[in-house]
Design goal:
The protein contains 12 helices and 11 strands. The chain is of the alpha/beta class. α2 links the parallel β2 and β3. 41% of the residues are buried.
């Protein structure tokens, strides 16, 4: 079957019909929270792909999805998503913002032999071989994007345990592969971030801190999904990088929500201003305590003023030249920013997605 005809048939199966010129995706309004989706080989028509990862015909994103992150692989590295062209075409026809992600896997012995000496690391040894194989894994996906004219500024690197192509117990070796993958994208002109979760990240790379790289954080099928995912935006990430997108599972769909670090902020009063009259202390509970915990940069935001919140508040009061009372008087709220006017911060969506 000719490639052109195959793509047409796949496009019809996933719901991409011929259309006139698409209007551009809506310009992001600073401070507006957006919901989106991610799709990949499971959303291809049933039965496509490699034997270990046959597609399942999962539904495409909801009409409410403002952005869509498309998976480049059919699971493991060096294997392309079998309906990548059709899925990107769907995003274009639907006037959404397009992003890209790729699964990262430990290279097989054959892949290490084929690619281990081809890359920027020339020093003999296993570490260089693994880095070069990772580098070529990224270049494989770059080629897939360029062949299809996919122009995104950013690629999410998916790092998690993968049963059909397992990582090793040697976390240093696993890190070497990911170092190569990251450099492969960066050398090709893409910015990079990580998709993972705390347990999966630690299983693969241990306590590896990468605070310069943004993160995309999943919560699985927790309920209520949107609220559970959005809470991740204000929590510490698995790698120390800022959380820009959070994901939850709803039925057979992967859904996502943008975080404030991605959506920016509209000009207006400081959000703590509404709480400036609240006198919080040990034992206090509620939304004002959650706002205080976020303002203090705490990793646990539970709305309960316990000993840790008190200790963090006293430390802040000392740094601000206030008496360490552990109670939020008016001066403490003002020192945290209450009563000020915040300038607009533009949405960062164009740094990570391409509008269609």
């Amino acid at each position: 079957m000719r490639v052109g005809l195959l793509l047409v048939l796949v496009a019809v199966a996933v719901g991409v019909l011929p259309a006139g010129p698409a209007s551009a995706a809506a310009a992001p309004t600073p401070g507006t929270r957006l919901t989106g989706a991610d799709i990949s080989w499971p959303n291809c028509p049933r039965g496509m792909g490699i034997p270990s990862r046959r597609s399942e015909g999962h539904p495409m994103p909801l009409d409410s999805a403002a952005f869509v992150v498309v998976g480049l692989t059919n699971g493991p590295g060096f294997v392309a998503n079998p309906c990548l062209a059709a899925q990107v075409g769907w995003v274009q026809a639907q006037d959404r913002w397009l992003g890209a992600y790729a699964m990262t896997t430990f290279p097989s012995a054959a892949e290490r032999a084929a690619y281990g000496s081809s890359g920027p690391w020339a020093t003999p040894g296993r570490t260089s071989q693994l880095r070069n194989a990772g580098y070529q894994q990224a270049l494989f996906n770059v080629t897939s994007m360029r062949n299809l004219g996919i122009t995104v500024p950013f690629v999410w690197v998916d790092v998690e345990p993968y049963p059909t192509h397992p990582w090793t117990r040697d976390k240093a070796a696993n890190r070497a592969v990911i170092q190569g993958v990251v450099r492969g994208y960066e050398d090709s002109g893409y910015r990079v971030g990580f998709y993972s979760y705390l347990g999966g990240w630690r299983t693969v790379v241990g306590d590896w801190r990468k605070p310069r790289y943004p993160t995309w954080y999943p919560v699985g099928a927790e309920r209520p999904g949107l609220q559970a995912a959005y809470q991740r935006c204000s929590m510490a990430s698995f790698s120390g990088g800022p959380v820009l997108v959070a994901q939850w599972v709803e039925g057979n769909r992967d859904r996502n929500v943008s975080c404030p670090a991605l959506t920016g902020r509209a000009a207006g009063p400081h959000p703590l201003t509404r709480w400036a009259g609240s006198r919080l202390h040990l034992g206090s509970r509620g939304p004002a305590v959650r706002a205080l915990q976020r303002a203090l940069g705490m990793t646990v935001v539970d709305g309960v003023f316990g000993p840790r919140t008190g200790a963090r508040l006293r430390a802040f009061q000392v740094s601000a030249g206030l008496g360490p009372t552990g109670v939020t008087g008016l001066y403490a709220w003002r020192a945290l920013g209450a009563g000020t006017v915040l300038p607009e911060q533009p949405s960062r969506l164009p740094e990570f997605f391409t509008p269609y």
